[in-house]
Amino acid sequence: MAKLLAALLPWGPVVFGVVLFAPMAAAVLDELEFPAAAGFPSLYLALPVGLIWGLVAKTRGRWL
Q1: Dihedral sign for Cα atoms in the order 49, 51, 55, 57
Q2: Whole-angstrom distance, CA of residue 64 vs CA of residue 18
C-alpha cells in the first residue's frame, strides 16, 4: 500500500487538474454561456485545460 501511494502521490497535481479544476472551469464556462455559442459541451474544453495545467504544475513543481 505504501508503494502504491508513493507512486501515485507525485501525480496529485494532474488529478487535481482533471477531477477538481476541470468541472469547476466547465461550470464557469456554462455561466458565461461560452460553450453554448460554440456548440460543444463545456467539459470538452475544460478537461484538456485542466490536464495541461496539472501536467505543467507537476513538471514545474508549483501551480503558478
Answers
A1: positive
A2: 17
